Amino acid sequence: MERFYKSGSTADFENQFKEDFKSLKKFQSIYNPIISYSGGKNKFIDIYSYELNLEKKNGKYYSINDVGQAIYLCDINNKIWIRIAYNEYSKYFDDVIWINENQFLLVGYEENENDKKSPIIYIGNTKAKSFEIVINKNIKCFQKNTLYKSKKLKNIKIENQK
């Protein structure tokens, strides 16, 4: 029995906000341990910087948490650094998995009106500049109370978070 299906639904990359490519090196000096790079290391997806808003002082990380989650794609070779999606409150991506140089998975959850968290998967395509949305069709499939914590986030210790 299939529990997920490709909905046929797609969403274009947001492509509204461009980051200043000149600030890339400074950004990487702070966020590099939690950035998800493609296999060739010429692209990365950032799902944490907007929410965590990190500062690094004397080798220690501090966070000024923000509401919402912005997802950024950086193509280093082509000097493109753009926001491709934004989530508020009920949807959150926990992790990024690169399939190849042009495709990646965003995996996380969507919270319903009963505070139940159902898995979500977006298949991103950097060439098509779009997502294919994978739908969970098992209405009894929810994330347990213990939230998933990405291995990437274990790479840093944020001093002012519990």
Highlighted features:
4-stranded antiparallel sheet, 162 residues, 2 helices, mainly beta, Lipocalin, 7% helix, 5-stranded antiparallel sheet
Summary?
The protein has helices at 24-31, 49-52; strands at residues 4-12, 36-37, 43-46, 54-57, 60-63, 69-75, 80-87, 91-98, 103-111, 117-125, 130-136. By secondary structure, it is mainly β.
Q: How much of the polypeptide forms β-strand, as a percent range? A: 35-45%
Alpha-beta content class: mainly beta
Distance between the termini: 40 Å
The major beta sheet can be summarized as: 5 strands, antiparallel
Rg (C-alpha, Å): 16 Å
Number of helices: 2
Give the strand order, joined by hyphens, for the main sheet: 1-11-10-9-8
Quaternary organisation of the protein chains: single chain
Domains, number: 1
Which H/E pattern describes the elements? Answer: EHEEHEEEEEEEE
Described by the principal axes of the CA atoms, the overall outline is globular
Regions with little confidence, pLDDT below 50 for 5+ residues = none
Taking all residues together, what is the mean pLDDT? 87
In the CATH classification, which architecture applies?
Answer: Beta Barrel
Give the % helix.
under 10%
**How many individual β-strands?**
11
Query: Can you tell me the CATH class?
Result: Mainly Beta
CATH topology label: Lipocalin
What this model shows, in words?
This protein is globular. Strand 9 and strand 10 form a beta hairpin. A 5-stranded antiparallel sheet has the order 1-11-10-9-8, with no helix packed on it. It has a 4-stranded antiparallel sheet with strand order 2-3-6-7. A two-stranded antiparallel sheet has the order 4-5. The chain has 2 helices and 11 strands. It has a single domain, classed as Lipocalin (Beta Barrel). The longest helix is centred in the first third of the chain and has 8 residues.
